[in-house]
Amino acid sequence: MNDSSWGAPPQAGYWGPSDQGPAQGAAPAGPAYDTHNAQQTRPMPIVPDVPAHGGNQDDDRGAAVSGGPLFRDETPSTPPHRAPSRHQPQPHPQSQEPMSSASEPASAPQKKNAGRDLGAAIGVGVALGAVIVVSLFVVKAVFIGVIVVAVVVGLWELTSRLQERKSIKAPLVPLALGGAAMVVAGYVRGAEGAWVAMALTALAVLVWRMTEPPEGYLKDVTAGVFAAFYIPFLATFVAMMLTADDGAWRVLTFLALAVVSDTGAYAVGWRFGKHKLAPRISPGKTREGLLGAVAFAMVAGALFMQFLIEDGTWWQGLLMGFAVAVTATLGDLGESMIKRDLGIKDMGTLLPGHGGIMDRLDSLLPTAPVVWLLLVIFVGSG
């Protein structure tokens, strides 16, 4: 290879003649050499192999100094492959990384992936929405049954993942029975009934776990009490919304705002998201997505409060929409934190395109008490 391929200038006295020497390409002066046999009689210095995949030219240039072609006008050629010598300079570790070249075709730009099966997600979402709307506006007790089913399935998913991934055996039977009782008590007796049912459920978890060996008792009952609070107790606030005269519209507003917030975050974040919101917890969430959630939820909140909630006003809807966007995002991040700790992507596979029931309840559960409280403050509990 000639010296120009390395980007280094020729050195006098080695590759070519000096300013006082013979012309370029001529053989060294002396009787032992002639122009015909100069290359056959003079020993060729060892030229190190070119590092694979291109390489760091700054490092390779140093290799060219210690060995190179005899004459500057030689035709460059690929050096023969040879076993590396212990005296031969070795390429820098960084030179093993492949580098793109002009001869390699440029890779096609990657298209953004939505990250879920949109067809299945939309189909399941429409089906769930239909069940909720029908149960809300036909018989309220049916909707309470829908809440109970969602709570029990969510408890089953959470306790199953805890046992599979962490060997934590939170007792499902007292949790499921206590969770169902909690939702019904909240609907019948309000907040007081919900708190009493929560306390009794926690006590049932402590006693139930005593039937097994004491090893792991503390972590099992702690997980059980956490599950009782996280799923059925927070879901009880949805049942308490339903007790108002316009309870069906309140629940519909709560659900719609949560869905709109999630849709706004997804649409804006997928299209414009560049700055990560919480990369260590949920790498897919962006600050732009959060702004989209806030904007969408505030607009929807103003419309719903103005036209669906009795005595509600648009500015109250703006505040409620902002609160929903924040709590829904925090709820999503909270469940993502749990899933990161468990080392799983979804809590279940029951809902195609969505994951499990808990993957849909994650943003709803912490939002329910906030919406319930704001509605009580803005328009009362009746």
UniProtKB/TrEMBL annotation:
EC number: 2.7.7.41
Main location: membrane
Pfam family, one: CTP_transf_1
Keywords: Cell membrane, Lipid biosynthesis, Lipid metabolism, Membrane, Nucleotidyltransferase, Phospholipid biosynthesis, Phospholipid metabolism, Transferase, Transmembrane, Transmembrane helix
Protein's UniProt keywords contain Membrane: yes
Associated pathway: Lipid metabolism; Phospholipid metabolism; CDP-diacylglycerol biosynthesis; CDP-diacylglycerol from sn-glycerol 3-phosphate: step 3/3
Bilayer topology annotation: Multi-pass membrane protein
UniProt similarity note: Belongs to the CDS family.
Protein name: Phosphatidate cytidylyltransferase
